[in-house]
Structures are given as C-alpha cells and as structure tokens.
Specification:
- The structure holds 2 protein chains of 2 kinds.
- Chain A is about 0% helix and about 50% strand.
- Chain A contains no helices and 11 strands.
- In chain A, strands 2, 4, 5, 6, 9, 10 and 11 form a 7-stranded mixed beta sheet that branches. Chain A has a 4-stranded antiparallel beta sheet with strand order 1-3-8-7, with no helix packed on it.
- In chain A, about 35% of the residues are buried.
- The model of chain B has no long low-confidence stretch (mean pLDDT about 90).
- In chain B, strands 2, 4, 5, 6, 9, 10 and 11 form a 7-stranded mixed beta sheet that branches. Chain B has a 4-stranded antiparallel beta sheet with strand order 1-3-8-7, with no helix packed on it.
- By secondary structure, chain B is an all-beta fold.
- The N and C termini of chain B lie far apart (about 35 Å).
- Helix content of chain B is about 0%, strand content about 55%.
- Classes of the chains: A mainly beta, B mainly beta.
C-alpha cells in the first residue's frame, strides 16, 4: 500500500471558481477525514466519513464546502465560489476503526485563491 | 475548542531533553501526538488512551493525566531528526467517533 494519496498537490484558482480535490485512503481504512491547515496553525477539522457515511461536519464549514465518499473508497472535497480566505493546505487522513495507529495523512493539496 | 499546547517553540542542542504539554478543557477519551516537518504531512507518533493504554514509538514517551485532561510528550536525548512541529490531537469522551481536534503546535528545533 502506498499510503494516502491526494491530488492535485497544488491548485491555483481565481476567486469565484469551483475546485475539487481527491483523496485515496489506505484501502483497509474505513474512516476518512478532511482537515484544513494554514501556515503556523494546527490542522482544523472539516468533515469525516465512516465508510460512505458522512458522520460529522464542522460547524465552521460553510455551505460552499461539500464532500463525498462514494462506495466508501476515495473521497472528494469541493469548494464552490472560492474566496481568498479558502487559501490553505487541505489534508486528508484515514484510519481503521479500533486501531491504535492513529491517522495516516496524505501530503495535502495546497490551494491558492487569487 | 482546540487543546492548548506549550511551549509554542523550543530550541535544543543535540542530546538535550524536552517536554511538550497539551491541555484540554474537555473530557478526553484519547490523546494523539504527531510530528510535522516543513512541507510534509503530519506523522503519527503515539496514542494515549483513557485508562492508561498507550502505543507509539520506542524512543518517545508520553503521559496522560485523565483528571486534569493533560498530556505531556517527552523527547529524551534529542536528535537532529526530532526537529519539526509537534501537534497533539484530542478525541473527546462523548462517543463522537475518533475525530481529532488539534492544538496549535510546538515548534522544536534541534541544533548540532
């Protein structure tokens, strides 16, 4: 297994455009998480899936953000009508329920909104 | 509300020891520790569970005070490779799944 894969690694977009990121978790992991990280800060929780069900969504997440995990495999995070404040590193992580090995993070997608 | 980490930054010489603290205002089920090097993803170091169980790296130890909802990470005989930002992630004890809330991080620099 090659770990958690995220694409693209970098995305530059104009304000107002929509963007979509993809995350491929470790195949045995049934839990998948999206976090956002800005420079000098810790990862901030966005949303979390157990298999294909979205179980938790941050109250800070505006309705411009949506995430899916069809068939409990890969996940996509879409941001509509991007704003400059959306510029950040978007991290995906996966874990196995009941495991003591924590999260495995992907390398992230760095979004720059210009 | 995110856990509070202290100190915010620390500089060590190779071979010195360091302690990083993490404090939460919530009742916790577990505390995780991660290290992130510049431009890289956070990497799991250790998990401490309510009740005393812990799993993690051999050269890194940690404690979890359930009464105070505080955890400390102990880095002994530091090596250059220990440099990076350390984050604690806390899981609340309310059956909400194992979603973690991360602290603001502690930047550690180990110099030769």
């Amino acid at each position: 297994d090659t770990g958690v894969s995220q694409n693209p690694r970098h995305k530059i977009t104009k304000r107002g455009q929509n963007v979509t990121f993809r995350c491929d978790p470790i195949s045995e992991h049934n839990r998948l998480y999206w976090y956002r990280q800005t420079l000098g800060q810790g990862p901030e929780f966005l949303t979390y899936f157990q298999n294909e069900a979205q179980l938790e969504k941050s109250r800070l997440l505006s309705d411009r953000f949506s995430a899916e995990r069809p068939k409990g495999s890969f996940s996509t995070l879409e941001i509509q009508r991007t704003e400059q404040g959306d510029s950040a590193m978007y991290l995906c992580a996966s874990s196995l329920e009941g495991s003591f090995y924590g999260y495995t993070f992907g390398s992230g997608t760095r979004l720059t909104v210009v | 509300q995110q856990p509070v980490q202290s100190p915010q930054a620390v500089i060590l010489r190779e071979g010195e020891d360091a302690v990083i603290n993490c404090s939460s205002s919530k009742a916790l089920y577990s505390v995780h520790w991660y290290r992130q090097k510049h431009g890289e993803a956070p990497v799991f170091l250790m998990i401490l569970l309510k009740g005393g169980e812990q799993k993690g790296h051999e050269k890194i130890s940690a404690s979890f005070n359930e009464k105070k909802q505080q955890s400390s990470l102990y880095l002994t005989a530091s090596q250059l490779s220990y440099s990076g930002t350390y984050f604690c992630g806390t899981e609340e004890d309310n059956n909400a799944g194992n979603m973690l809330t991360f602290g603001g991080g502690t930047r550690l620099m180990v110099k030769p």
